[in-house]
Amino acid sequence: MFGDYAALIVLLPVIAFVFTLFLGKKLYSGGALLPIAAIAGSFIISFGIFLEIYPDGTVQQSLPWFAGMNLGILIDPLAVVMLMMVSFVSLLIHIYAVGYMAHDPARPRYFAETSLFTAAMLSVILSDNILQFFVSWELVGLCSFLLIGFWYHKPSAAAAAKKAFLVTRVGDVLFLAGIVLLYVNMKLLVDNGTLVLESQSYILQFRKMFEAIPLIDGTQLTYITLLFFGGAVGKSGQFPLHGWLPDAMEGPTTVSALIHAATMVTAGVYLVARTFPMFVATPSTISAGVPDALLVVTYVGGFTAIFAATMGLVMNDIKRVLAYSTVSQLGYMMLALGTAGTVLGAKAVGISMFHLLSHAFFKALLFLCAGSVIHAVGTNDIREMGGLFSKMKITGTTMLIAALALAGIGFPFAGLGMPIMNIGTAGFFSKDAIIEGALEYGEVTHDLIPYGFAIVAALLTSIYIFRLWFMTFTGKPRSERHSHESPGVMTGPLMILAIFALLFGFSQVGFYGYLEKNFELMDVNIAVHEGEAFHPSAFLVLLPVIVGVLGFLISYAIYNKRMIDMSKIISSGNPLYKLLYNRYYEPKIGADLIGVKLTHDVAAQSGEFIDRKIIDWLIIDNIISNTLFKLGEVVRKLQTGVVQNYASITILGVALLLVLLRLKYGGT
Amino acid sequence: MSLYSYLLISIIIFTIGVYGIITQRSGIKILMCIELLLNSANLNLVAFSSYYDNAAGQVFAIFSIAIAAAEAAIGFAILVALFRLRDTINLDNINILRW
Question: How many CB atoms lie under 10 A from the CB of residue A512?
Fold first, then answer.
């Protein structure tokens, strides 16, 4: 029943986009209603499909399009949870935006673009072949460009949009190269007859790709998966392509929430999760028992988690802190895929996706709370805030809940063998599972570095998020700005998201069970060597929680009780602070050195020299164009511009024709 | 009056038209000469149609007259525009179509 309407999940927001773009000014409240209704429809259909296919069904629809490409829908457990999350969070953000963007003159454009953004992301999720996936993926990139540069009259916003577009484009090029390489390999198999296709245009379907995994040469598979991962690195802001994410804060806060929670950045993780069987199947040449691709995923993710968290410690812009937090959490998701993928196989997708979903809820909540604060105070700088809790109780409380979820506060009763279940926020459940996976990975491979990454990043996460909260909501107001609680249309979504951030974790067991079957439904078996049951010591079970609480206490001591005077430490003379505050000089290295000096000054200039000065001079100026030019000089004389000449020539021609016909056919 | 006399008149008119197009300098005269060409052709069509008892030629002639009218309207409109641009319709002085 609902499965028949699966295509509408994408089409409804697209229709809303078209109407809002062209008729937005005439519609009620700047055209907000139509996208909200469309995305609500998408959510209802997604939820209906979930109820239909639970516990082990899929929805598949495909139609051939043209060579090597088909349009299709594949909704399996992995896709359906993503669909529900994206449409739901996007819906709440859209409702919130009605209040947040109330005074913006360009509201129709805003709502049209966010609607298209959501549609593109939904299309990424339910694609059944990698090419359609890529097309939607590019569309997401385009929408991010439009939305980050929404206030294009600000030079900083225009620059940030450009940066986001170009940096993610680097990843997209890698991803496309991966698709091409995969296609070449698949085509070879099809021509050999080892892989059988129903139709030529189904060659890039995910199920066909998984079918071909055992047939493709291992080294090739490593290249393909690493190129795919390159695309994921660009979209998900992993090191070294993380620079665009903090800059992307130039757009409206609701856009940041959309990008960071529901749509764009999760696409990278989703790509790795979607093609996960390929990653697992890569050969292990570097470290025994660890597939090469997963090793790279682990280390890039782990390093990003810790690297971004350090920068989150020193940022003064409320949204920048959250942006680095997102980069760091995405690193966690990648780490989960890498580590748990090695030791647990298919379960890793469940662990990673669980964190993705719970992160989506609390990160959307954090951003919307930040938006609420910015809306009230009129600045992004947390140094100018303080003491807002008394005036903004709902925002303050919900943000505290989100902070607790991000820091992963909870208590593992069951993990310690007690007869009650674990109790905690959504982040506690999901992050704990990741850290445990990393620990198990360490047990199996004797490589504890990823585990170390995860623990240290958890400590830093806890410190910076509570620093943010304490500096914003507690203490004395540090500036003369007046503040007020936001209207109900904004606080409503906050409260709904807060409920999810608190309670979503309890669905953990069911969630894992549901997603574990995902690849079996596609007839893919991810080989996992079942080790003996894993029982870490009580200290190791408690460590993530200890770290989270420790971070809270450190922040409480420094930013609420003022036990330590930070003014000495955050002076410009402190080299470590300078390094962090300048974001490891990433803007300088990325934009100035690589962007301007290497790419423009060296590569582009020399390319221009070779093309203009050498090739053009040699071939164009001296051979082709000169000949043509001289020919033109001769022929143009025919165009006298005198009408009688033209008429004479016409009449002559007709007369000649008559004579010729007469000669040919004769006559009396 | 045989068919020949009609065709003779048609030939004479056609030749006058061709001569005019090639020799005249005024745009209006040239347009009128084009009308002469078309009308001589129409005369031909009607004469043959009457001779062979076939109505198709007459229908064709009516089409041709209608299209000639439209063409003349456009031609004169162009001439008016030219006159506003250049204050002359002497085609010797007008060579905007040149390279």
Answer: 18
- Average pLDDT for residues A60-74, to the nearest whole number? 78
Rounded to the nearest angstrom, the minimum Cα separation between B98 and chain A is 4
- Residue carrying structure tokens 């997603």: A515
Radius of gyration of chain A (CA): 29
SS3 A127: strand
Report how far residue A72's alpha carbon sits from residue A64's, in angstroms, rounded to the nearest whole number: 8
Does residue B4 belong to the interface with chain A, where contact is any CB pair within 8 Å? no
pLDDT score at A472: 83
Using CA atoms, how far apart are residues A469 and A474, in angstroms rounded to an integer?
8
Residues of A in contact with B82 (CB under 8 A): none
Residues B23/A642, Cβ–Cβ less than 8 Å: no
Q: Residue A338: which H helix or E strand, with range?
A: helix A318-344
- One-letter identity of residue B1: M
Copy the structure tokens of residue A311.
Answer: 């920068």
Instruction: For residue range A563-587, list pLDDT tens digits in order.
Output: 666 666 666 666 767 766 767 676 6
Contact B21 A651 (CB under 8 A): yes
Interface touch B98/A643, C-beta < 8 Å: no
Distance of CA A91 to the CA centre of its chain: 18
Torsion of CA A350, A351, A354, A360, to 10 degrees: -120
C-alpha to C-alpha distance for A267 and B49, rounded to whole angstroms: 76
Query: Backbone dihedral region of A374: left (phi > 0), alpha (psi from -120 to 50 degrees) or beta?
Result: alpha
pLDDT reading at A326 higher than 80: yes
How would DSSP label each residue in A134-167? HHHHHHHHHHHHHHHTSSTTSHHHHHHHHHHHHH
Residue corresponding to tokens 């549901």: A514
- What is the mean predicted confidence (pLDDT) over A234-250? 84
The whole-number pLDDT of residue B59 equals 93
By the 8 A CB rule, do A186 and A212 touch? yes
Contacts of B63 (CB under 8 A, 6+ apart): none
Q: pTM of the entire structure?
A: 0.77
Half-sphere exposure of A589 (CA within 13 A, CB side): 10
Centre a 10 Å sphere on the Cβ of residue B70 and count the other Cβ atoms it contains. Answer: 9
Q: Tell whether B22 lies on the interface with A, counting CB pairs under 8 A.
A: yes
Please give the single-letter amino acid code of residue A42: S
**What whole-number distance in Å separates Cα of residue A399 and Cα of residue A365?**
7
B95/A640 Cβ within 8 A: yes
How many residue contacts between A and B have a Cβ separation below 8 Å?
34
Q: Please, which contacts does A97-105 make with residues 24 or more away whose CB atoms are closer than 8 Å?
A: A97/A32, A97/A252, A97/A254, A98/A29, A98/A32, A98/A36, A98/A489, A99/A375, A99/A486, A99/A487, A99/A489, A99/A490, A100/A252, A100/A253, A100/A254, A100/A371, A100/A375, A100/A490, A101/A30, A101/A252, A101/A254, A104/A30, A104/A252
Closest CA to B19 of B43, B42, B4, B40: B40
Max CA distance (Å), chain B: 51
- Sign of the Cα torsion A160, A162, A165, A171 reads negative
Q: Nearest Cα to A291, choosing from A345, A227, A210?
A: A345
Percent over 90 (pLDDT), chain A: 13
Segment B37-56 shows an average pLDDT of 92
Q: Where are the alpha helices (DSSP H) in A54-154?
A: 77-100, 107-126, 130-148
pLDDT band, very low/low/confident/very high, at B99 (cuts 50, 70, 90): low
B30 touches chain A (CB under 8 A): yes
